[in-house]
UniProtKB/TrEMBL annotation:
<dbReference type="GO" id="GO:0004806">
    <property type="term" value="F:triacylglycerol lipase activity"/>
</dbReference>
<feature type="active site">
    <location>
        <position position="179"/>
    </location>
</feature>
<dbReference type="InterPro" id="IPR033140">
    <property type="entry name" value="Lipase_GDXG_put_SER_AS"/>
</dbReference>
<comment type="similarity">
    <text>Belongs to the 'GDXG' lipolytic enzyme family.</text>
</comment>
<protein>
    <submittedName>
        <fullName>Alpha/beta hydrolase</fullName>
    </submittedName>
</protein>
<feature type="domain" description="Alpha/beta hydrolase fold-3">
    <location>
        <begin position="105"/>
        <end position="312"/>
    </location>
</feature>
<dbReference type="InterPro" id="IPR029058">
    <property type="entry name" value="AB_hydrolase_fold"/>
</dbReference>
<keyword id="KW-0378">Hydrolase</keyword>
<dbReference type="InterPro" id="IPR013094">
    <property type="entry name" value="AB_hydrolase_3"/>
</dbReference>
<dbReference type="InterPro" id="IPR050300">
    <property type="entry name" value="GDXG_lipolytic_enzyme"/>
</dbReference>
<dbReference type="Pfam" id="PF07859">
    <property type="entry name" value="Abhydrolase_3"/>
</dbReference>
Amino acid sequence: MTAARNAHSDHVRSLPGRLVFREESISWQGRCLTTGLRYTVRPALHLLTYVFHWPLPTGIVDWLARFVMIPPKGTVRQPVRLNNCGSELVRAKGVAPADGSGRAILYLHGGAFIACGLNTHVRIVSTLSRLADAPVLSVDYRMAPHSPMSDAVQDCVDGYRWLLARGYRPDQIVVAGDSAGGYLTFMVALTLISEGLTPPAGIVAMSPLTELDPAGKLSHPNSRTDPIFTAKCFTALEQIILQANERVLVDGVPGPLVEPTAEDLTKMPPTLIHASAVEGLIYDAELMTERLQAARVPVELKTWAGQVHVFQAAEAFVPEARQSLEEIGEFICEVAVCAELPAAG
């Protein structure tokens, strides 16, 4: 390893074991978004929990997003086919092609494992590409109820391998995701470690789901005040995951569900977590931070007052969303090597 690369590794190891920051104020734009979603999306999602076992057209969410989530001007989107799913390579205006010479981001979208996709998250992805000056591979992984979570994890690992085949080293790659995609970010790193491979340079998780059992979330005060999700949403999500998992049988019984908070985290890379202070998934964010801290992994958690779940999707309107993404971009630049480093001497 070169002297420059050693210096980078020493810097990463010197990052604090745990830092918790809080944004106590909220802009009028953030208040408007939170109030609007509380009286529109929240009751709609609650009603859907009663019919989640029906064959709902969940793909329509990503299809409609094509007309709403317009990427910033100059964004380049290139389709990429992985082994079992689609994906796309996204570059903001001015970002160089994915040739292995700079940083790269692997992005895993949220959507409760049943909805959303490349279109719903293209603005977040393009913005991160611009802020980190890096191409982003956004994975359209297989989802429930047709596929178990293990398939989604494998698709995301395939995305990581695609970046490696493109010439990127692990210390040049950061894996980022939101909500259900936050769960997948941790699972990608854990899967790589279990296979004896080098994990990415860092992990970014926005409002991540890290514990599949809803008990902790249901006992948290935010389960009653979350601007988007009711308590029944968390129990319905567990049922969706369990039903999808029944498609994978090991000796005649469904395979085990893996929770990253229960795994050995000692070899995990530096991690940044951003979440709303009033959402139900703050329980998961805090729990994962505690477990990473216990494993002596550099981790930082930042909470934002009054915001909705994955408020970063509203970066065109909410200033806190832009600030969050800017800080995430800074973290990516901090932990990932920018380019091929010259040999010492």
